[in-house]
């Protein structure tokens, strides 16, 4: 009897731990900034006009926007940033920019710039013109997607 209930308790604890791990892995948050796609939008275009980084848009809408951002449609509801994880200080990359020059112009460091833009490699050799970077002077972790839309 005791052994049985100990097993049941252990199973319940394990189930609770697993449930919490699953919740963490699929963390969702409230949207701080909604956006409705208009005809002609591209991901980088939306990012440039709305002050959102290319990484943040892709990350917040992971599962909605595909990897090469070829599935946007007019009228589509997107979220630009999650409450508490919303970088709104941005820079649109142009030819000749380097991570160091972007960081210095924004008053931040290359280390923080790389932390805020995980899509940029550590050598900063994969920037492309028109891409939008978060240039906040502190690290803003973006690790949630938007709460499922109705
Ligand atoms: C997201 O990042 C925040 C801040 O670093 C952290 O407290 C939280 O545990 C993270 N959540 C997930 C699901 O990784
Ligand atoms: C964003 O849109 C959702 C769904 O329509 C709504 O619940 C939420 O209040 C909106 N958030 C903001 C900040 O407008
Ligand atoms: C984007 O940031 C710039 C510079 O801070 C500001 O002038 C502009 O109003 C912002 N645009 C939006 C849509 O927030
Ligand atoms: C989207 O989610 C997948 C699976 O969790 C992850 O591997 C990928 O890095 C995410 N992409 C972005 C841009 O956050």
UniProtKB/TrEMBL annotation:
Keywords assigned: Chitin-binding, Signal, Virulence
Protein's name according to its UniProt entry: LysM domain-containing protein
Native species: Ganoderma sinense ZZ0214-1
Signal peptide range in chain numbering: 1-19
Origin: domain of life: Eukaryota
UniProt KW Amino-acid biosynthesis keyword: no
One GO MF term attached to the UniProt entry: chitin binding
PROSITE patterns: LYSM
Lineage, top ranks: Eukaryota, Fungi, Dikarya, Basidiomycota, Agaricomycotina
